[in-house]
Amino acid sequence: MIKILFFARLQEEMGTESIEVEKAGYTVRDVKEWLADNHQLSTISQTMVAINEDYANDDDMVNESDTIAFIPPVSGG
Amino acid sequence: MIKILFFARLQEEMGTESIEVEKAGYTVRDVKEWLADNHQLSTISQTMVAINEDYANDDDMVNESDTIAFIPPVSGG
Amino acid sequence: MSSDLFTITDQPISVEEMTQKVIRPECGAVTTFMGTVRELTNGKRTISLEYHAYESMAVKMLEQIGQEIKEEWPDTLAVIAYRKGHLNISDIAVVICISSLHRKPAYEANQYAIERIKEIVPIWKKEQWADGTEWIGDQLETTAYPEGKPPKGGSL
Amino acid sequence: MSSDLFTITDQPISVEEMTQKVIRPECGAVTTFMGTVRELTNGKRTISLEYHAYESMAVKMLEQIGQEIKEEWPDTLAVIAYRKGHLNISDIAVVICISSLHRKPAYEANQYAIERIKEIVPIWKKEQWADGTEWIGDQLETTAYPEGKPPKGGSL
């Protein structure tokens, strides 16, 4: 199982803060495609991604028990 | 009469904060020369000068009742 | 790096306390940046806003910024506090304090910190506008959702 | 310009109060600079120092700096307080607060203020060194008088 976190506009689109799915072994790119196909997230390609609270690239692998977070453009400051 | 103010090292050299002298009509340059001749102030040429709290040039005139201040390099901040 | 130096809080931030954390005998300069809630943005009036954070990661990113500052300006000490939750106009959202021996690094490191916060710290603001609409978006304020919801669907 | 905004004081300066003077609904950014008394300067240990000011002119020059800032960065509001008299290590000598709509002018105007203070505000520090000597001089710290008195006489 992996945990997927959604924030800001993505959280509003999903209607939830997080989901848990059997996608261990997927790359970040794979998870994005799966989300796009299954949840019609319009802006998923524009978001940054973090695995276990560190920014990750599309090629990075999501392992069993990892938390992957989709991070829309931030607006701090 | 004009009032002459001394600060920082000049004040220590003069041993006083201010003097009053009959030098109305002098230019700043004249006052500097008079001070150099009569009080052996070593650093008078390196100081800035203010007349009535505004910075002045060597050619500016000191008028009756004016206050002229000799301002060594400042060390604020 | 102490978590006391880089914090996310739902309480008002005391500039005085933040300042005291960085003042050291060897220092001659302290710079502080405060981000406050602005009433008008591009002519629209904000009533209030809410900051939401991916909190654990936000703290980690603040610590990372502190580390980057330490490497670039070794004589500095940095603290950063970010307020989450509901804020009103003029409330302080973020405070960055930097102390250093001389003033130049204190200014440079401070400006670096706020730029990096806007790049990597996962915090978002949700604005409540006076005209009844709301907005969630990036700091460039280029994307507005006047219906209060971003559009659904669309292409990747 | 209100004299409340540009002051010389013999009391400790409250950063919190200074900040409150410049925060305005239209602003999103406040920068603060604090100059603190540094223990070591070029390897010499300071015990304490005294700031002396040509007070009436110093206030006038602070107001002038405020005016210059207003002309260069019209959307800013500036306050400056300078502490005179006896100060110990880490005491705050000067506080500059600038608020503005966005952060860039707040940083720029703040840095401008401290540079100008070091140029035109008639304030001098007299340092008491740990080795028993003292020093009075300009901010470049190029002239030292180890006997506690500048040399007398000499040429123009």
Automatic annotation (TrEMBL), chains A, B:
InterPro entries: Beta-grasp_dom_sf (IPR012675), MOCS2A (IPR044672), Mopterin_synth/thiamin_S_b (IPR016155), ThiS/MoaD-like (IPR003749). GO terms for cellular component: molybdopterin adenylyltransferase complex. Gene3D superfamilies: 3.10.20.30. GO terms for biological process: Mo-molybdopterin cofactor biosynthetic process. It comes from the Bacteria. GO terms for molecular function: nucleotide binding. Keywords: Molybdenum cofactor biosynthesis, Nucleotide-binding. Signal peptide: none annotated. Pathway: Cofactor biosynthesis; molybdopterin biosynthesis. Pfam families: ThiS. The keyword Nucleotide-binding applies. Belongs to the MoaD family. Involved in sulfur transfer in the conversion of molybdopterin precursor Z to molybdopterin. Heterotetramer of 2 MoaD subunits and 2 MoaE subunits. Forms a stable heterotetrameric complex of 2 MoaD and 2 MoeB during adenylation of MoaD by MoeB. During catalysis MoaD shuttles between the two heterotetrameric complexes. This is Molybdopterin synthase sulfur carrier subunit. It comes from Alteribacillus persepolensis. The lineage of its organism: Bacteria, Bacillati, Bacillota, Bacilli, Bacillales.
Automatic annotation (TrEMBL), chains C, D:
Pathway: Cofactor biosynthesis; molybdopterin biosynthesis. It holds the Pfam family MoaE. The keyword Transferase applies. It is an enzyme of class 2 (transferase). Keywords: Molybdenum cofactor biosynthesis, Transferase. The keyword NAD does not apply. It comes from the Bacteria. GO terms for molecular function: molybdopterin synthase activity. One of its GO terms (biological process) is Mo-molybdopterin cofactor biosynthetic process. It catalyses: 2 [molybdopterin-synthase sulfur-carrier protein]-C-terminal-Gly-aminoethanethioate + cyclic pyranopterin phosphate + H2O = molybdopterin + 2 [molybdopterin-synthase sulfur-carrier protein]-C-terminal Gly-Gly + 2 H(+). Its EC number is 2.8.1.12. InterPro entries: MoaE_sf, Mopterin_biosynth_MoaE. Heterotetramer of 2 MoaD subunits and 2 MoaE subunits. Also stable as homodimer. The enzyme changes between these two forms during catalysis. Converts molybdopterin precursor Z into molybdopterin. This requires the incorporation of two sulfur atoms into precursor Z to generate a dithiolene group. The sulfur is provided by MoaD. Belongs to the MoaE family. This is Molybdopterin synthase catalytic subunit. It comes from Alteribacillus persepolensis.
